[in-house]
Amino acid sequence: MFERITFGPQIMSGRACIRGMRITVSLVLNLVASGMSVEEILKAYTNSV
């Protein structure tokens, strides 16, 4: 169901992360809650956009 979310005890202490990245789901949720747009988040954390 959530193919883009992964868990691994060796990555970020087992916290839920975006697949292939060391960005936690909780960080993304906090950024969205604080008012950042998807485009702003992508620009800040990837080479996209």
Quick recap:
By secondary structure, the chain is mainly alpha-helical. The chain has helices spanning 25-33, 38-45; strands spanning 5-6, 17-18.
Q: What class do helices, strands and sheet pairing give?
A: mainly alpha
Low-confidence stretches: none
* Mean of pLDDT: 89
Number of strands: 2
Report the end-to-end length measured between terminal Cα atoms: 26 Å
Portion of residues in helices?
25-40%
% residues in beta strands? 5-15%
String of helices and strands = EEHH
- Rg value: 11 Å
H/I helix tally: 2
Number of domains: 1
Main sheet summary: 2 strands, antiparallel
Q: Looking across the biggest beta sheet, what order are the strands in?
A: 1-2
Q: Give me the oligomer status.
A: single chain
Features:
single chain; 49 residues; 2 helices; 2 strands; mainly alpha
Commentary on this structure:
The chain has a two-stranded antiparallel ribbon. The mean pLDDT is 89. Helices cover 35% and strands 8% of the residues. It contains 2 helices and 2 strands, in the order ββαα. It has one domain (5-45). The N and C termini lie far apart (26 Å). The protein is mainly alpha-helical and 49 residues long.
Give the topology.
Layout lengths: L4 E2 L10 E2 L6 H9 L4 H8 L4
Antiparallel strand pairs: 1-2
